Amino acid sequence: MPARQASHVWRPEHSTGGKSGDCQPQANNDLLSVQAFNAAQEQVKSCNKLADAQAKADARQQTQEAKMDKNDAVKALGDLFK
Q1: Segments forming the whole domain that contains residue 55
Q2: Contact criterion met (CB below 8 Å) for 19 and 13
Q3: Does residue 20 sit within a domain?
Q4: How many domains does the chain have?
Q5: Quick check: is 25 in a domain?
Q6: Would residue 17 count as lying in a domain?
Q7: pLDDT tens-digit readout, 44-73
Q8: CA–CA separation, 28 and 30 (whole Å)
């Protein structure tokens, strides 16, 4: 049976001692990935701020509605004893 050849052969240019230009595309890709990650983080922060503001507005609205419902119930009870 013939010996199997490795699918990946180590070459000196793949090591850290290769040409510095070999790293440039990877560095650019890494920079773009970092920038995209930072942009995504900022977007999440903005969305969280909007969601918090909306939740507070909803809570205020629900509180107002609950107060109105309570006033209506008190008024209805008061009308029963007139």
Answers
A1: 33-82
A2: yes
A3: no
A4: 1
A5: no
A6: no
A7: 999 999 999 999 999 999 998 888 888 888
A8: 5
Q: Which amino acid is at 48?
A: N
21 in helix, strand or coil?
helix
Residue 18 tokens, joined? 């290769």
Residue 62 domain-assigned (yes or no): yes
Top pLDDT among 52 and 8 is at 52
Higher pLDDT, 22 or 60: 60
**Contact of 13 with 22, CB cutoff 8 Å:** yes
- Give the separation between CA 61 and CA 31, rounded to whole angstroms: 45
d(CA 23, CA 19): 8
| pLDDT on residue 18 | 52
Contact 35, 41 (CB under 8 A): no
